[in-house]
């Protein structure tokens, strides 16, 4: 009897070792999916089946992800962590997920993303970090995003987006950027030019609506002519050398009101400033065409008047010459008769 109990307990332990379904989750072995959504979880369940390919952890209270948080499910292809309370993601949180293709991090409390966070996801195709508090995205985030086709960052606190980050996604087809704090100044010209090229190649995106400055508030970035952007001022070499020499001691010295105002003035130079709009080529062409047509009509009228005048003069001369010819003919006849009747 004791031997049977020992055998049964060994079988149970063995089944748990190969990965039984956690008590708080529902597992579907046929599809390889595990649903742990809306379970009030505060951390990742430790006993997930290793053959899991789809893991649903949305609508919980998970606050952070430690390094190698999903080492027990290396075959994972889809991971949904939406609508949690995530505020911290360890640099190696997704380490070991070589097959992950879809990652959903929407509706969390993320303020930033560590630059190496996604470097262990070479097959990632869809990334959604919408509805967070992200204010900056490092350019190095996209070093392993060659296969990324969907990128969503709407409803965050982004003011700028480096063009180099977008250029690291050569396969992206869908881009969602709306509802951010876009600052449409000279630093956003690179993003504008990249988006125009992206749309020209068939890419699909929503919109980039300017929040500042007031000149373009509420305007679509793509509808603002890039000619209206002033080039960003480059820092002077003297200023850079002085900053290097002063170092941290310079940063510790409080700034005077005059220097503060000067700094604000330099910063304002980078803002988007309307300048006189260049002449519209279409209007110029229309003006040239109208002028050409008017000149052509005038020339035709002058030609018609000349032809009419010449014709009138010829007709008049013809009719005036006909009677004189008729009167001269009888006079010649009479002179001939007088010559004939004279004596020989």
Q: How would you describe what is shown here?
A:
The radius of gyration is 43 Å and the shape is elongated. By secondary structure, it is α/β, with parallel strands linked by helices. It has helices at 2-18, 163-167, 189-200, 237-252, 257-269, 281-341; strands spanning 26-28, 33-35, 54-56, 64-65, 78-80, 88-89, 102-104, 126-128, 150-152, 174-176, 204-205. Mean pLDDT is 80; it is low at 5-18, 238-279 and 331-339. Strand 9, helix 2 (163-167) and strand 10 form a beta-alpha-beta unit. 36% of the residues lie in helices and 9% in strands. The chain starts with a helix and ends with a helix. Strands 1-2-3-5-7-8-9-10-11 form a nine-stranded mixed beta sheet, with no helix packed on it. Strands 4-6 form a two-stranded parallel sheet.
